[in-house]
C-alpha cells in the first residue's frame, strides 16, 4: 500500500511519546524526520514534503493540546489533518449520466481500470459502458472485452477498425442507452506526439465530462512530466492510482495531482475488476496511520452480504440469530468473507487491527488463514446435504470418507467441526439478546483494548 512504511515508522516514534503530556522540540524533530524519510522514499516531491513537515512542526509546538489529550494523540491528530490536506479531496464524481475519458502511458493500467470503474458504477445502480479505442496494442480489445464480461458491463470495441477516433464516435452511438460512458485510450511507451494528437482528437469527438489520468503507483517523479503534458492537451480532472497492492511508493501520483491541480478519484488494489476503491482522503490516511477505515470496511461487508444473498434468495442473515447455525451458514459466512477481498486488505481497515497489529503477525499468517479457509471449503463441498444441515451425524467413518473425498486429512475435518461448534456456541449467545446487549457486544468487539477482534486473530480463538 502507498506510503506503507510511513504508518509503521510513525507509530514507532509515536509510541516513544507514550505517557508524555508535553512535547519537546526534539520529540517533534524526530517525528518530522521519520515522516520526511518515509515520504521521500515513497517518491513524494521534495517541496511537498518540506511544506508538510513545516506545518506539522509549527502546529505541534504552537498549538495547545485540548485538555486531557496526551502528547501522542495531539501529534497524531496534527499529522492526520496535515496528511489529509496533502492528499486533498477526492475527485467529484456525481452518480449521474457522464462520459469519462481515460489517459495514461502504456501499461499504467487503463484498460483494467476502465472495467473496474464500470463495475464500480454498476454497483452504484448505474448502467455503464466501456468503449475501447486502443488500436495500438494487439491484445487490448480481447483484454477489455473479457474484463467487461467479468464485470458484467456493456462493452464496445472493433478489432477490424484501426481508427480510434471513429471507434470512439461509433462506440458512443452504439451504447447510447448507457448512463456512464468510459472511454479507454491507447498508451505509448513515452509521451510521443502521435499519442497526444490522437487523444486530443478523441477528446474532441467524445467531449468528456471529466478526463482521468491513470498512473502506476510505482511511477516516481516521471509522473510530473506526464501529468503536465496530459493536462496541457486534454485537461485532467482526476487521477486513478493503480497497482497500490504491489508497491510501497505512490508518491509520484501525489506529485501528479499537485501538478495538474486535480485530485485522486480511485485507487486500484489488484488485478480483478473488484479491486477498486473510491478515494476517501480521511479513510485513506486513517488506514495509513493504522487507525482503520470503517467506511470502506462497511461498504465491503454490505456488498459481500448482498452478493451472498443474491445467490441464495432464501437466506436472511438475521435468521442465524433466531434459529440454528448449520455448516451451510458457516459456508455462507466464508463465501461472504471471500467476497470482501484478500484478508490482509480487510484487516487493514479494522481500527486497532490494521497497521501495527498486522506488522506483528508473521508474514505468512494471512496465507495460512486463507489456505485453511480454502481447505474448509473443499471439505464442505464433499459433505452431504444431511451432514451440512446437521453436523452431529458426522462420526469417525464419515470423517474418513470426507477427508478422502476432499483430498484433505481427518485432522482438518475435525478442526472444521470444532470450529463450527465453537461458532454455533458463540452465535447461541446472541440469541434472545436485547438491543442494549448487542450494543455492548459490538463495543467490546470494536474496542482496541483487548478482548476485541485483534485478540480473535492473534489468539487463534477466532473463526478463521
Ligand atoms: N496488481 C495490480 N495489477 C494491475 C492493477 N491495475 C492493472 N494491473 C495490471 O497491469 C498490467 C497492465 O494493465 P493494462 O490495463 O493492460 O494497462 P493499459 O494502461 O491499458 O496498457 P496499454 O493498453 O498498453 O496502454 C496488467 O497486467 C494488469 O493486470 C492493479 O491495481 N494491481
From TrEMBL:
Coiled-coil annotated spans: none
Binding-site positions, GTP: 104-111, 184-188, 242-245
SUPFAM superfamilies: Domain of the SRP/SRP receptor G-proteins, P-loop containing nucleoside triphosphate hydrolases, Signal peptide-binding domain
Zinc found in the keyword field: no
Domain SRP54-type proteins GTP-binding, chain residue ranges per copy: 97-290
BP term (GO), one: SRP-dependent cotranslational protein targeting to membrane
Enzyme class: hydrolase
Swiss-Prot/TrEMBL catalytic activity: GTP + H2O = GDP + phosphate + H(+)
Pfam families reported for this sequence: SRP54 (PF00448), SRP54_N (PF02881), SRP_SPB (PF02978)
The entry's keywords: Cytoplasm, GTP-binding, Hydrolase, Nucleotide-binding, Ribonucleoprotein, RNA-binding, Signal recognition particle
Assigned EC number: 3.6.5.4
A GO cellular component annotation in the UniProt record: signal recognition particle
Every AAA+ ATPase domain range: 96-280
Subunit and interaction comment: Part of the signal recognition particle protein translocation system, which is composed of SRP and FtsY. Archaeal SRP consists of a 7S RNA molecule of 300 nucleotides and two protein subunits: SRP54 and SRP19.
Function: Involved in targeting and insertion of nascent membrane proteins into the cytoplasmic membrane. Binds to the hydrophobic signal sequence of the ribosome-nascent chain (RNC) as it emerges from the ribosomes. The SRP-RNC complex is then targeted to the cytoplasmic membrane where it interacts with the SRP receptor FtsY.
Domains: entry comment: Composed of three domains: the N-terminal N domain, which is responsible for interactions with the ribosome, the central G domain, which binds GTP, and the C-terminal M domain, which binds the RNA and the signal sequence of the RNC.
Family assignment from sequence similarity: Belongs to the GTP-binding SRP family. SRP54 subfamily.
HAMAP family associated with the record: SRP54 (MF_00306)
Protein name per its UniProtKB record: Signal recognition particle 54 kDa protein
Species of origin: Halorubrum tebenquichense DSM 14210
Gene from which the chain derives: srp54
Amino acid at each position: 500500500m502507498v506510503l506503507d512504511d510511513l504508518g509503521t515508522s510513525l507509530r514507532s516514534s509515536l509510541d516513544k511519546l507514550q505517557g508524555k503530556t508535553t512535547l519537546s522540540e526534539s520529540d517533534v524533530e524526530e517525528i518530522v524526520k521519520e515522516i520526511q524519510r518515509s515520504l521521500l522514499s515513497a517518491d513524494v516531491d521534495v517541496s511537498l514534503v518540506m511544506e508538510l513537515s513545516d506545518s506539522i512542526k509549527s502546529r505541534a509546538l504552537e498549538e495547545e493540546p485540548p485538555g486531557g489529550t496526551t502528547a501522542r494523540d495531539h501529534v497524531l491528530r496534527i499529522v492526520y489533518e496535515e496528511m489529509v490536506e496533502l492528499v486533498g479531496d477526492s475527485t467529484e464524481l456525481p452518480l449521474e449520466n457522464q462520459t469519462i475519458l481515460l489517459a495514461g502511458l502504456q501499461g499504467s493500467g487503463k484498460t483494467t481500470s476502465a472495467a473496474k470503474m464500470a463495475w464500480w458504477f454498476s454497483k452504484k445502480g448505474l448502467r455503464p459502458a466501456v468503449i475501447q479505442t486502443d488500436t495500438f496494442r494487439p491484445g487490448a480489445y480481447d483484454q477489455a472485452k473479457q474484463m467487461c464480461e467479468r464485470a458484467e458491463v456493456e462493452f464496445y470495441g472493433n478489432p477490424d477498425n484501426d481508427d480510434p477516433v471513429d471507434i470512439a464516435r461509433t462506440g458512443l452511438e452504439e451504447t447510447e442507452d448507457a448512463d456512464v460512458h468510459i472511454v479507454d485510450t491507447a498508451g505509448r511507451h513515452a509521451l510521443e506526439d502521435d499519442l497526444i494528437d490522437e487523444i486530443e482528437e478523441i477528446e474532441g469527438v467524445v467531449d468528456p465530462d471529466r478526463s482521468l489520468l491513470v498512473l502506476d503507483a510505482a511511477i516516481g517523479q516521471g509522473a510530473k512530466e506526464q501529468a503536465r503534458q496530459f493536462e496541457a492537451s486534454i485537461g485532467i480532472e482526476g487521477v486513478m492510482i493503480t497497482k497500490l497492492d504491489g508497491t510501497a511508493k505512490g508518491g509520484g501520483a501525489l506529485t501528479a495531482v499537485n501538478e495538474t491541480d486535480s485530485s485522486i478519484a480511485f485507487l486500484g488494489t489488484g488485478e480483478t475488476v473488484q479491486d477498486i476503491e473510491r478515494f476517501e482522503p480521511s479513510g485513506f490516511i486513517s488506514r495509513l496511520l493504522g487507525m482503520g477505515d470503517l467506511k470502506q470496511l462497511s461498504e465491503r461487508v454490505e456488498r459481500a452480504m448482498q452478493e451472498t444473498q443474491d445467490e441464495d434468495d432464501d437466506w436472511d442473515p438475521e435468521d442465524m440469530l433466531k434459529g440454528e447455525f448449520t455448516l451451510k451458514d458457516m459456508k455462507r459466512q466464508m463465501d461472504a468473507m471471500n467476497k470482501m477481498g484478500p484478508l490482509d486488505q480487510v484487516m487493514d481497515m479494522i481500527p486497532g487491527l490494521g497497521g501495527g497489529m498486522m506488522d506483528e503477525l508473521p508474514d505468512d499468517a494471512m496465507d495460512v488463514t486463507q489456505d485453511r479457509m480454502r481447505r474448509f471449503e473443499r471439505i464442505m463441498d464433499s459433505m452431504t446435504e444431511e451432514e451440512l444441515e446437521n453436523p452431529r451425524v458426522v462420526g469417525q467413518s464419515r470423517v474418513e470418507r470426507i477427508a478422502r473425498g476432499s483430498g484433505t486429512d481427518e485432522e482438518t475435518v475435525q478442526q472444521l467441526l470444532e470450529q463450527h461448534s465453537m461458532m454455533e456456541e458463540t452465535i447461541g449467545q446472541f440469541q434472545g439478546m436485547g438491543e442494549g446487549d448487542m450494543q455492548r457486544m459490538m463495543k467490546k468487539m470494536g474496542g482496541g483494548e483487548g478482548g476485541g477482534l485483534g485478540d480473535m486473530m492473534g489468539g487463534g480463538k477466532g473463526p478463521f
